[in-house]
Amino acid sequence: MLPSGSENPAQPAAQSGQGVESPGPRTTAPYVVLHGHFYQPPREDPWLNRIERQPSAHPFHDWNERILAECYRPNAFARILDEQGQVVRIVNNYEFMSFNFGPTLLAWLEEHDVEVYQRILAADRLSAERLEGKGNAIAQVYNHVILPLANERDKYTQIRWGIADFQHRFGRFPEGMWLAETAIDAATVKALVDCGIRFVILAPSQAQRIRPLGQTEWIDVSQGQIDPSRPYRCFTPDRGGYLDVFFFDGPISRDLGFGDIAYSTQALAERLQLAIRPDREVQLINCATDGETFGHHKRGTERTLAYAFCEEFPRRGWQVGNYAHFLSHHPPTWEVQLKPVTAWSCAHGVGRWSRDCGCGAVPGWHQRWRQPLREALNWLRDQLAEIYETEAKAYLRDPWLARDRYIEVILDRERREAFLQEHQSHRLTAEDRVQVLRLLEMQRYSQLMFTSCGWFFEELARPEGVQILRYAARAIELAAAATKVDLEEEFLLRLSKAPSNLELYKDGRGVYQALVRPRRVSPQRLVAQHAMLSLVNGVPRSSGYMLEPVDQERLAIGGSTLLVGRVKLSFPTTSEEHDLTYALLHLGGWDFQCGVKPFPGQRGYEQLKASLLSSSRSRIQLVLTLQELLGPETFDLNALTEEDRQQMLRWLTQDTLERLAQLYRQTYLENYGVLMAFRADGLPIPEELLAAAQITLNQRLLSSLRAMEIEEGKRDHLLELRAIAREAEQLGCQLRQEEAARVLDRLLQRGMWQLAQAADSETLSEQLHNLEEWLQLAADLGLPIRLDRLQELYLLGLERRRSELLRSSLERAPGRIPAETLRRLLQLGQQLRINVGAWLQQLPPPAATEG
Question: Where does a domain end: 307, 342, 377?
């Protein structure tokens, strides 16, 4: 729907941000900055470097995927709609809003949706072109650490890593930086200034007092009454440097985050209008909120922003810009003194991340676990720092400089060797390089374990708290590998002082033992996973390690299967390598036993294979021999991750399900006449027969759709699918629409991409025909097709061919696209609910046909 109160003139649909002019700042017109803080905590398994399935994010795999679908992508492709709900234009909202993205979130986006990632980067470039070189993006402290609670060294690392990540992605130095929860103190101000950051964004409640620059008298603003329509200058304690500060408009920001104005362009504009002061020659209206507000927390509100940025605000004469651009024309004329230690989401300074201050409380629950958790991690940080400094100075010229620069390797693992050569104090051996990289990775996890989300909510055992404990566990493991010093028991003793609200866990130690320790993944466990999944031709998904099969032999013994093999396992982050031998015995059903040992040399390996693969051994002897040769530790199905275990369980039940499916098909075919007779007489079909019909028809549906996907929509598959639909309707069977829709979605998106790339009239016509038939099929089957991606691809193709299509509609020269083909192309747009009215009006009328 068009945001209420908005009007939209008919015009050709396009994928652009037309509507915002780019004059220099006008002293008589309001200057509007809307900042979105886009962030999700890092969720990757620290051993596998992948996010495991999160059931609470259903129907998506995990929360990153869900919020990408509900927020990050919709804002990259925000719709402006007409009164009929048709797409008039697609806008990249990031071109017009000030924004920051968490570095760890951008790393995930780059891997999982490069198109959205590239539109975010492009938005910064395009906004810089519009605003005299000042782009919309600002940096963020690397992994959302509460800087006032970090020690001095970690403060600087977090800021430097955030800057380096920003430069790597956006190709420029950031002028501004978003602080986690806007948490700040005097030491943080100094660190930001030292690192070259020019400005930050804070809440009005964080200011203590203000005065005009050069004056001596202070004005108290400690109750949040600071004027947000101007920037302020905050000096370091020694007044040797300064940081400029923008205080967002608190009431407007609250209304955006917690009120209803985000649902209506008119309501948003009227709310901003109330902030305009007629006595001001320079008028800044600025507000800030979580970027996920637009689309995730409040569905569809990305359309409010798109229409506001491109239509409503320009119509009112307001300039849409960003903080850096405003600051370049209007440097501060006032000074601000901040309160000692503050954050925007805690009324008690930074208590929410260090003590039971009451913020985030749930009735009946406490947060007494917060302080012991903070103290335990602080102790671990200091132990890890001592280990790092002591060990690393044997290899590196300046260990702490190397840690600050290690972000270069995190961003590009191919730079690992160049980085080591740059920082080594002498030529490093292969073993030395492994040692150095272990120590640096240990320090990386010592940063990640302070991610603020671990303290934010009501209970330590929530996923956020468990995640930071998993980072701590990985850091402890790396410290032990590098020095043989085991810090875990002392760490657990300190965690036992953190009481949980859940009797199941009792305290932080119980949480760690139940939810962290079982998830640790050793090299032996990774090889056992590989062995089990190789039975189903599966491969464990991970970018955290590389596994190279060297040898494998399989032997069937009655109903059992024996695999014996050798693999080489390596870890890109630390350069560790393992040469391992395994034997897997599948006794049938859920019974697996797998043993893993270091490769004993070629002769020993051949002897091991000969001993195990001897056909004379019974199943019991095999079990005993496997435990003798590769025990005492063996792995079963529990060694697999939850997702991989589900894949294995599907494989184990496949034969049973296929036999049942065959029985259902046979029952359906044998009783087809009986079923139709029941329907003809208006009698309810017996449940057993109806189940057989429903299962059989759904199997045929998915089988035909998958075949059509592979063969790109051959007509015999279309006929079969329509026949299935008619049969299901006659019998009153429910088809599995969601699964079928996913298959057809993939086919339609591929076809739409091919349409956008079509190089000649004949190919264009052929792809049009396919898409017309597939969309009609979706309608016939009642499948819920997602139009958003199809609309984006369609408009991309339309924009690419704009001039060519216009010429084709007006000329009849050889090689031009016939007007009738162009008409079909635009009619396809209408099917996709895109406003192509203006395009259709430019076409010549259809040729008259004889009656």
Answer: 342
Give the single-character DSSP code of 8.
Answer: -
DSSP string, 537-556: T-----SS-EEEEEEEEEEE
Class of residue 627 by CB neighbours under 10 A (exposed 0-12, middle 13-18, buried 19+): middle
Whether the CB-CB separation of 584 and 593 falls below 8 Å is answered with yes
Residue with tokens 């501060």: 332
The two tokens of residue 686 are 């017996």
Are residues 103 and 231 located together in one domain of the fold?
yes
Examine residue 674 and state whether it is found in any structural domain, yes or no.
Answer: no
Torsion 418-424-427-429 (CA) sign: negative
- pLDDT reported for residue 540: 64
pLDDT at position 670, please? Answer: 93
Quote the CA–CA distance of 366 and 573 in Å, as a whole number: 39
Q: How far apart are CA 845 and CA 777, in angstroms?
A: 29
Task: Find out whether 541 and 62 touch, Cβ atoms under 8 Å.
Answer: no
Tell me, yes or no, whether 393 lies in a domain. Answer: yes
Question: What are the residues whose beta carbons fall under 8 Å from the beta carbon of 135, sequence distance 6 or more?
Answer: 124, 125, 127, 128, 170, 172, 322, 324
Task: Count, in order, helices (H) and strands (E) of the chain.
Answer: 33, 21
Domain that holds residue 238: 14-342
Q: How far apart are CA 627 and CA 644, in angstroms?
A: 24
Structural domains counted in the chain: 3
453 three-class SS = helix
User: What's the CA dihedral at 355, 356, 360, 361 to 10 degrees?
Assistant: 170
- Of 483, 502, 519, the position where a domain reaches its end is 519
Residues in the chain: 851
CB atoms within 10 A of CB 851: 3
pLDDT digits (tens, 9 = 90+) for 167-176: 999 999 999 9
SS in 3 state form for 342-390?
Answer: EECCECCCCHHHCCCCCCCCCCCCCCCCHHHHHHHHHHHHHHHHHHHHH
Q: Return all residues near 656 (Cβ < 8 A) that are at least 6 apart.
A: none
- The torsion angles phi and psi of 780, rounded to 5 degrees, stand at -65, -40
What's residue 635's pLDDT? 94
- Structure tokens that stand for 650 in this block: 């599907």
3-state secondary structure 237-298: CCCCCEEEEEECCHHHHHHHHHCCHHHCHHHHHHHHHCCCCCCCCCCEEEEEEEHHHECCCE
Any idea what the Cα angle at residue 123 is, between residues 71 and 76, rounded to 5°? 25
The owner of tokens 């259902």 is 664
- Cβ-based neighbours of 510, under 8 Å, separated by 6 or more: 500, 504
pLDDT at 544: 84
- Residue 300 makes CB contacts below 8 A (sequence gap 6+) with 1, 263
Question: Running DSSP on this structure, what letter comes out for residue 13?
Answer: -
Segments of the chain with pLDDT less than 70: 1-28, 538-541, 615-617, 712-714, 802-816, 847-851
Q: Do residues 453 and 39 lie in contact, with contact meaning Cβ atoms separated by under 8 Å? A: no
**Residues 503, 599 within the same domain:** no
CB-based contact 321:309 (threshold 8 Å): no
182 and 323 assigned to the same domain: yes
Q: Which residue type does 380 have?
A: L
| Same domain as 442, residue 296 | no
User: Long-range contacts of range 661-665, CB-CB < 8 Å, 24 or more positions apart?
Assistant: 661/695, 661/696, 661/699, 664/691, 664/692, 664/695, 664/696, 665/692, 665/696, 665/699
Q: Are 472 and 557 in a shared domain?
A: no
Asked whether 804 and 759 are in contact (CB, 8 A), the reply is no
Nearest to 781 by CA among 746, 738, 748, 831: 738
Tokens 């913020």 correspond to 359
- CA distances for 833 relative to 305, 767, 783, angstroms: 20, 19, 16
How far apart are alpha carbons 372 and 824 in whole angstroms? 67
